[in-house]
Amino acid sequence: MNLIYINLKSIYNKKMSFNSLLILSLLITLPFVFSATNGQCSGRNGICVSTATCKSYGGTSYAGYCPYDPADIKCCDNIKCNASGGSGDCKFTSQCGGTTYSGLCPGGSDFKCCVGGGGGSSGNGDKYTVAKEVYNFFKGKGWTKNAICGMLGNMERESGLKPDINEYGGGGGYGLVQWTPGSNLKNWANARGLNYRLTKTQCLKIQDEFENGGQYYKTNSCPLTFSQFSKSTESPEYLAACFMYNYERPGVQALNDRKKYARNWYNYF
To answer: Do 141 and 259 lie in a common domain?
Structure first.
């Protein structure tokens, strides 16, 4: 946290008025607020660290979630770790429902390896496992590779491809596409006797929206209907933008990230 100090005596000696001096003294005691390095990301799970540190721990850097920090400080997420108790994910201790282990993750003492209790034990696997399950599900429904990867680019931006994840900051979002409020997914799944935490359940929810409407609406930015989107052979970048405009409608667009992730998944599959 940065503070600016000014020699008030020198200002006073220049015969500054009392009211002006009072206002200035109040202003300069207020810190310029920055997202603290090693602090929680704003808008998603993860930690604000340098991209080099993130890479050294095998994580993925996401831009736009550590506002006001230097350019090389980004949100680092998807950090896997291996402890004596098994494999897990690096998390803030307040977000871990399992056992934490020190010395295996970047950042401060409150960011540790979380094993069990939501630290990778939900049966969903890492992001590649999740992406494959999503890809295979919608490929089986007749979606094009381009459309699926456009959607996957959005999922990675929204949730890091973690189905069992709440929106950081209390925004109420949940899941792969961050349904808001999360009860939209949870109530739907509970009414059908499904586990809302699972990738398959969330794929079924999207398919239900595809068939019955309620989430995807075509816009001037992308005039494709959901059916047209699913069959489109436009570039994954274009379809990532379509899914963002017509389905996600996010507060933070970060469209370049969504396009980049969509292209990466297209190349992967």
So the answer is: yes
Does residue 241 form part of some domain?
yes
Q: 62, 90, 56, 89: which is closest to 74 by C-alpha?
A: 62
Q: Is 237 a catalytic residue?
A: no
Domain membership of residue 246 (yes or no) is: yes
pTM attached to this predicted model: 0.60
What is the number of other CB atoms lying within 10 angstroms of the CB of residue 246? Answer: 20
Dihedral pair phi/psi, residue 2, rounded to 5°: -100, 140
Amino acid code (one letter) for 75: C
Phi, then psi, of 63 in degrees rounded to 5: -80, 155
Query: What's the CATH number where 135 sits?
Result: 1.10.530.10
pLDDT in tens, 133-168: 999 999 999 999 999 999 999 999 999 999 999 987
Domain check: are 59 and 153 in the same one? no
φ and ψ of 74, to 5 deg = -135, 170
Q: Catalytic one among 156, 158, 167, 209? A: 158
> Is residue 200 domain-resident?
yes
Render pLDDT for 14-60 as a digit per residue (tens, 0 to 9). 444 445 444 444 444 433 334 578 998 887 778 999 999 999 999 99
Residue 15 lies in a domain: no
